[in-house]
Design goal:
Blueprint lengths: L2 H35 L19 H6 L7 E8 L2 E5 L2 H9 L1 H4 L8 H5 L7 E8 L2 E5 L2 H9 L1 H15 L7
Antiparallel strand pairs: 1-2, 3-4
């Protein structure tokens, strides 16, 4: 092989490697962005497909306690399947899901305030200003309870920015 041909082959190989590494890096960035975008708008159990693990969202406000909904009393709303204790709760929710569904789609408002879509746990909850909030940890719930107004305000600012990155179920 002539020296000129070796040089051309070497340049082609370097160009190929550069293109390959660029594609790999870009692919990694795209995969990372796509991975971040797979967070759901409404927290749904990935095994059952139920919002808030099948707990009745109306029961939190009406009965002041979490109660499991029944399989025969389901409603699809906001891209999620919700379960209810009784027909009355299902009917009330159907008329005003934005009031009875957990704020921030069931994501922990303290995490949302920090810019992270972290699913709340249905048994770590709090009612503030007639709205249901779910929390990732007891510590997050306690921090929220100390100053709910500031926490909600910070979470609302970030929630607007986060929504385009969340997937509607």
């Amino acid at each position: 092989m002539t020296p000129a041909r070796q040089e051309r082959k070497s340049r082609c190989f370097r160009a190929f490697l550069t293109a390959l590494l660029g594609t790999w890096t870009l692919g990694g960035l795209i995969a990372t962005a796509t991975g971040a975008a797979t967070t759901e708008w409404v927290v749904v159990n990935r095994y059952t497909g139920l919002a808030i693990d099948g707990f009745d969202p109306v029961a939190y406000l009406v009965d002041a306690t979490p109660k499991q909904g029944r399989a025969g009393l389901e409603l699809r709303s906001g891209g999620a399947t919700w379960r209810f204790q009784n027909e009355g709760n299902r009917s009330v929710f159907a008329g005003a899901p934005e009031i009875y569904a957990p704020r921030f789609g069931g994501h922990d408002p303290m995490a949302v305030a920090r810019g992270a879509a972290t699913p709340g746990h249905p048994e770590l909850w709090l009612i503030a200003e007639q709205r249901l909030y779910l929390f990732y940890s007891a510590e997050a719930r306690a921090a929220f309870a100390r100053n709910p107004e500031n926490a909600v305000e910070a979470a609302e600012r970030n929630w607007l920015e986060m929504q385009p990155t969340l997937v509607r179920n």
